[in-house]
Amino acid sequence: MKDTYRFNIGEFRCIAVSDGSHTYYTPPNFPPPPVFLFANASEEQLNNVLHEYNLDSKTWSEWVSPYICLLIDTGQQLVLVDTGAGNLSPETGKLPENLKKRNRWWGYRHYYSHSRASRPYRW
Q1: pTM for this model (two decimals)
Q2: Which residue segment(s) compose the domain that 38 sits in?
Q3: In the chain, is it the N or the C terminus that has fewer CB atoms within a 10 Å radius of its CB?
């Protein structure tokens, strides 16, 4: 994946910025991926989709999760939405580096995240 992807929403300029990715292995840390990722799917629905992608629910033991943050330039403020995974693994924590590459490391007044645990960077 590219480090950044630019797009607009109306007048707002947006940049999706990668913080890296992490490979999750199961078990013992997590239930098997089909159970963990698709808890509400019926067995029939799950088997149909897994078959489409040549995945076997009995042998599928890992998945890669990208961590993507969103930088929004409103014209008056820069807003960073979600702040990545920090030092979760050697493959994460790339957000500051990728923001610096785009000269977007300054001026944050607001940042939003889905949980306190995913606020690894001090601004």
Answers
A1: 0.69
A2: 27-60
A3: N
DSSP-derived pairing of the beta strands 78-81 and 4-9: unpaired
Query: Could you tell me if 73 and 115 lie in one domain?
Result: yes
Tell me how far apart the alpha carbons of residues 109 and 107 are, in angstroms, rounded to a whole number: 6
- Tokens, residue 61: 């033991």
Q: What is the DSSP string of the chain?
A: --SEEEEEETTEEEEEEEEEEEEEE-SSSS--HHHHH-TTS-HHHHHHHHHHTT--TTT--EEEEEEEEEEEE-SS-EEEE----TTSSTTB--HHHHHHHTT--S-EEEEE-SSGGG-----
pLDDT digits (tens, 9 = 90+) for 25-68: 877 777 888 888 888 999 899 999 999 999 988 888 888 989 99
Co-location of 17 and 31 in the same domain: no
**Residues 123 and 72 occupy one common structural domain:** yes
